Amino acid sequence: MTRCVIVSMNEKYALYFSVLLVSIIENAGLKDRYEIVVLHDDLPDGCRERLSGMLSKENSRSISLRFLNVHEQMEGYQFYVNGTSNRAYLSREAYFRLLAPHLLPEHKTALYLDCDIVVSPGWEEIFDMGLDGYLLAGIGDIWGNWECYDKNSKLYQYRQKELELENPLDYFNSGVMLLNLALMRSVFREGELLEIAASREWQKHDQDVLNRVCRGKVLFLDYRWNMIECPGRRAKESVPLEEYRKYEACRETPRIIHYASRKPWIVKGVSFEQNFWAAAAHSAYFQELFTHFIEEQLSQGTCFEEKAFESIRAGKIGVKFIVRCALVWVKRMLRNN
Question: How many CB atoms lie within 10 A of CB 140?
Fold first, then answer.
């Protein structure tokens, strides 16, 4: 059986996808084949070759990379992306996944993953979830839902009126979705999802679109399958204790870790950062990832230096780490001069 994984990316996100790719290689089940489909718009040849080179002769027997250029399919559509508001983080690539059902007619189901993810042992069990009658399986957006516990909040009203959700808390994070491509092809005509996405300015863009058009036909899974760090005290305090306990229990055995909150390649102390860096160490882009991380830490001033010295004294940082830090620091000083 061939299991399909879909990602959408540009050259910038190749760094983070490379880490996801390592985690898939290291945790792929032995019995099945995996086809990783990369949706892109004119990704440079060098980038594709570098990512493809991460597959060895041995693991390429069970894992394949396919790059699909969706430039032609995306022509003519205008979306609200790269703006100046709190949605400026969104890129045009986020909409590529809306093409998946008709773009991959050979697949009945597929797992969509954002690039800022690593998978853990047992992650492949998500493919065994029964999707009969469901358009997709998703995971409740616990940290995006916290405002909706107040029925008078603007977000609650928006989801109820604009997204037509009977219960505004029945809202999933689109970074991890098991898609029933066969059923979606029968429900939505080719290009329909993109037309809906481009028809107005949605608060959460394609994620809102998917929550609206799939409402009532979503199989909700527990938080193990899309483990996201709590973004702050206010969100934590707003979530009911029973729901938070469910989340905490899932933190013990996460299957898919999603760095949708703080990014481990930018700040220290992120939940499950060790999972990210363990995979990143085997990435073809490790040098770039590490250099960016150290530059971010150096920009924070003495705080990082103090933490680094503490780690060195405790024996938690080895010689290689110190040498790399020194090289990054020297390059930074030369640039500044």
Answer: 21
